[in-house]
Amino acid sequence: MIRRLFTRRPALLPRDAGGEPWLVSLIAVLCFLACLSAVGAAAADRAAHGWARQLRSEATVQVRPRVGETGAEAAARAAETLSGVPGVAEAEAMDRKTAEALLRPWLGDAVLPDLPIPHLVTVRLDTAGPASAVSLSRALASAGLDATLDDHSLWRGEVERSAALITILALAAFGLTAGAAGAAVAYATRAGMAAQAGVIETLSLNGASDSAIAGLYQTRYGLLAAAAGGIGAVAAMVLVASLRFLGGAEGVTPALPLMWSDLLLLSPCPLLAATVALAAARFMALARLKGRH
């Protein structure tokens, strides 16, 4: 397809087979990087919103037993109390074995037997109408329980802020690579017109308008950019599909969940690359022609 593109070009413009393949390669690499930035932004946003949604649907309660009451009994009583609160799907007391399993990757096995572990209750909230932190705290107080509620609001805020920052950075990377592609096309247009000054002069003397001459360059570099964008998008699709296939249901990792629908984000890449090239080529061509006059 690229070979035919290099041979089938407007007959009025001479061939520039030496520079245009390099331009296609450069734009293809930039489009590839832009596609990866777009997929990375979508995956990061999806992961962060998934974490925030999970944090929003859960709460943790630390229970302190009363005099004459064991920690397990206090946790069981708290779980029973919270299970009856509207908006709570499930409340379960965490036993010591489960708590040790959570701490083992961080502390190891040596200190766990002697470590005083707090008595916790995990609360899963109804996603349709979750119970508020106020209602949960009131229920615990009404039951005479000495407990502290953590609704993960602090962590959720940090996750959401981090997600916004990651998305902004990925979008900025996408904008920079798209701008670099436009700058490459603009430079190539300017260099091509400088090398073909005699052809432009001949076309002008034969009555060709500036707009018509700019249209020739616009068509040439628009087609080149479309082909290069297609190459970059296909390469990115192959990489994303491979990572999604190898990563299973979670994508690469839970921190970067990829989906098959992410491939649809890459499909407009040739059109976007052609649009940037068309605008850059026309602007540079008209500016060059006006400067010549």
Q: Quote the beta fraction.
A: 5-15%
Radius of gyration: 31 Å
Number of helices: 10
| Run of helices and strands | HHEHEHEHEHHHHH
Name the overall outline. rod-shaped
For the record, the count of structural domains works out to 2
The residue-averaged pLDDT reads 79
Oligomer: single chain
Instruction: Tally the beta strands.
Output: 4
Strand order of the largest sheet: 2-3-1-4
Task: Determine the N-to-C terminus distance.
Answer: 37 Å
- Provide the low-confidence segments as ranges: 1-10
Helix content: 55-70%
**Main β sheet profile:** 4 strands, antiparallel
What structural category do the secondary elements indicate? Answer: alpha+beta
Structure description:
The protein has 293 residues and is α+β, with helices and mostly antiparallel strands. It has 2 domains: 2-52 and 160-292, no CATH class; 54-156, Alpha-Beta Plaits (2-Layer Sandwich), CATH 3.30.70.100. Helix content is 67%, strand content 9%. The protein has 10 helices and 4 strands; from the N terminus they run ααβαβαβαβααααα. Strands 2-3-1-4 form a 4-stranded antiparallel β-sheet. The two termini are 37 Å apart. The model is unreliable at 1-10 (pLDDT under 50).
